[in-house]
# Entry
Amino acid sequence: MAYVTPFHLKLMALAHRPRNTRQRRVILDELKKVTSHPTAYEVLKLVRSRMPGISLATVYRNLELLSERGVIMRLDTGGMKRRYDGNAANHYHVRCIVCDRVADVSCEPLGTIEELMGEATDFTIVGHRLEFHGYCPACARQPAKPTA
# Structure
């Protein structure tokens, strides 16, 4: 059996670690500039100002990779479209049930809820996500549409 040196272990680890490419850095930079929780297509429009030739597939693949690594947050709990958040810290969101707009809720996460859920179930709770639903200010001002 061959001896694997610490140097070889480091090389093997680097080979399996995703590189921090220019495309990935630009996608992350643009996503961190906005608080609108954009879709992959909206991120593409933001990134194209700096990288005109980038494709939607490249943006989507990098967004998924960044969310898997915990660098960004992927929001796919209740809306019609998957959205992304440049803020990966635990925080809450509110979603408009009419236009699907998503906004951050500025309050501290409820740490005690994880303890309560752990006591109420046989699960080991490691985190939670919470999303509120309602009407954004613009949609709340719209007159109700008659149902047929």
Residues 56-68 form the longest helix (13 residues). The chain has two domains: 1-88, 90-148.
